[in-house]
Amino acid sequence: MAKLILQIFSISVLYSLVAFPATGEEDHIFGKPINEKSMRLKREKLSHFRFYWHDVLSGSKPTSMIIIPPPKNTTTGFGQMNMIDNALTLGPELSSKIVGRAQGFYAAASLNDVGLMMVMNFAFIEGKYNGSTFTILGRNPVFEKVREMAVIGGSGLFRFARGYVQASTHSLDFKTGDATVQYDAYVLHY
């Protein structure tokens, strides 16, 4: 009888080691499917936003700063990286009403032309979108008339956002590097 009890006990211990690993995390699940209704998502909609992005490298309060300069032997600026906190305004003038900030960086990522890799959060500070953001990632071939980049996500009212932006240069000062770019954003969100 003692032998039977010892066998049952031994089998039970072995089973528990296999079924419940000794991580102390048996109640924690890395990922699991959830019901979309539990997220309380509203109906998905497509919104269009137009604003102006102001990249200011000059003056006493620049909003774009070179954090990695380009090597001396490049004709395209390849390797240069700028960190930005650029104003987003309703009109093309920098004095126009600010509706948000473009925060992130861009880097010269092309050896053969002026092509930037753009990584930005558009953080809104106005109206119902105050506190909400969407994120842009993509290639920006600067001297093309219209450039398209992806909207890859967001927060606040832009949770689960996806879409694209089209950028077109409104003005560019070749002496200072300051630029104003019109952005048209087409964003699917809830």
Description of the molecule:
With 190 residues, the chain is mainly beta. Helix content is 9%, strand content 45%. It is built from 1 helix and 9 strands; from the N terminus they run αβββββββββ. The protein has one helix at residues 2-19; strands at 45-55, 64-68, 81-89, 98-108, 115-124, 133-141, 147-155, 162-172, 179-189. It has an 8-stranded antiparallel beta barrel with strand order 1-3-4-5-6-7-8-9. Strand 7 (147-155) and strand 8 form a beta hairpin.
What is the number of E strands?
9
Unreliably modeled segments:
none
Helical run tally: 1
Major sheet, described briefly? 8 strands, antiparallel, barrel
Approximate shape: globular
Strand order of the largest sheet: 1-3-4-5-6-7-8-9
Q: How would you classify the helix and strand content by structural class?
A: mainly beta
Outline the secondary-structure elements.
Layout: H1 2-19, E1 45-55, E2 64-68, E3 81-89, E4 98-108, E5 115-124, E6 133-141, E7 147-155, E8 162-172, E9 179-189
Antiparallel strand pairs: 1-3, 1-9, 2-3, 3-4, 4-5, 5-6, 6-7, 7-8, 8-9
Key structural traits:
1 helix, mainly beta, globular, 8-stranded antiparallel β-barrel, 190 residues, 9 strands, single chain
Brief sketch in words of this structure:
The protein has 190 residues and is mostly beta strands. The protein contains 1 helix and 9 strands.
